Amino acid sequence: MQELFYTNYLYTTIVMMNRRSVFRIFVITCCMTCMAMPYTKAQSYQANWASLDQRSTPQWFRDAKFGIFIHWGI
């Protein structure tokens, strides 16, 4: 009977430790997500030429247009 009690107690302790660990990880993840929210800036996208002109294209893209054209199978 003593061994059964010890085994059950040990199992219960391990399960509770796992639940606590999962809960702690969940809480830490939620806190870190909430802390990071103000730092993410949503940039609004408008489907017009003025919005596209505001974004600069890198020099390598301007130089490699022919290579990209060939890459797509033409």
Outline the structure in words.
The chain is mostly helical. It has a domain at 1-34. The protein is built from four helices and no strands. It is elongated, with a radius of gyration of 28 Å. The relative contact order is 0.05.
Concise summary:
InterPro entries: GH, Glyco_hydro_29_N. The chain has a domain at 1-34.
What is the 3D shape?
A: elongated
Number of helices: 4
Q: Main β-sheet, in a few words?
A: none
Instruction: Name the beta content range.
Output: under 5%
Q: In oligomeric terms, what are we looking at?
A: single chain
Structure class: mainly alpha
The tally of strands reads 0
Query: What is the average of the pLDDT values?
Result: 74
Order of helices and strands: HHHH
Radius of gyration: 28 Å
Pfam families: Alpha_L_fucos (PF01120)
Keywords: Membrane, Transmembrane, Transmembrane helix
InterPro entries: GH, Glyco_hydro_29_N
GO biological process, one term: carbohydrate metabolic process
